[in-house]
Write a structure and sequence with these properties.
By secondary structure, this protein is an alpha+beta fold. Strands 1-2 form a two-stranded parallel ribbon. Strand 1, helix 2 and strand 2 form a beta-alpha-beta unit. It is elongated, with a radius of gyration of 18 Å. The termini are far apart.
Amino acid sequence: MYYLRVALALCFFFLSSSAWAERRIALVIGNSAYQHAPQLADPQNDASEMASKLTGLRFVVVTEA
């Protein structure tokens, strides 16, 4: 059973290796003017935190202030 788990893990690793080579882009938008939901307290801070986390995960982050 152990070898089966290791084999599956290696398969997933090698099959997903092409995803690691691709350029990953994230668009982060901080919005609080929702029509059918309450306004967020600080969308600018939320968007900034999310952009920071995504940058740490090697995303190219696009923000619009």
